[in-house]
Amino acid sequence: MKIEGNTFIITGGLGGIGSAVAKGFLAKGGKAALFDVIPEEKGVELAAKIHPTDVLYVKVDIANQESATAGVATVVEKLGSLKGVVHCAAISAKRPWSNDVSDSIPDFIKMINVNTVGTFIVDAVVADAINKPYNHPPGAASDSASTFWTTEEERGVIINFASAAGHGLYARTLCYGPTKVAVAGITRAMADFLGPSGIRVNSISPSIVVTPMTAGAGLGTYFEEDLKAHAAFPRRPVPVDEIVRTVEFIVENGYINGEDIRVDSAWRLVTNRASGLPDPRSVAPGLE
User: Which keywords are on file for this protein (predicted)?
Assistant: First the structure.
């Protein structure tokens, strides 16, 4: 899939990863529609700073089907040539550790709704928008779904964001990790379902990503020590440029489909309960 001349939606588009992906697409002649939840006026202002004409901001709640559908329709109307989505948006709620597992239920529901249900909604409405001219051609006698059809033409690409935490499920990601396991599952199922319509679906599982927004904030000794202890190489957070390169590689390589690509330095998340060490709950920054 070529980036040049085509439009891609980026959810979480005003975040560190999303805005970097948008700039990468623009550098290759593409257009970017940024979905986020900040107020419309501020979003439009920030989008214009990235590019005055080829970047569009749309306020969208990704966990709401009506909001996502309306947002995609706006993109098709204003930018045209929609070829896919890079779905970066997600949340991670932290709370103090507790021995009562039920304390985590409210956070789990929030993260499931945004991280998991939101991924399914975004994938579905973008795929339907790409397929609309074929499934619901103008002037058709009925607006009901057409029968399945098969094409050899590549028509779109969807990239979801899973996480290293979805591969190494451990205590600290009690809620967040399972939502990202589900993202990888949605990716594989969508790749199979959308294959006949020429839409590829992949996901990326990064470790900790350093963006311009977080570089000066510091990641805390917990994360730095965990990376040094349990990553293979390099034992440091991932620069955002490496994530952008991975996104562009997936878009441009037409044979990458149904994959979850780990960009994590072979970091293996574990809970160290070795004798003589402090309880890991006392040093972790919070339960996600």
Answer: Oxidoreductase
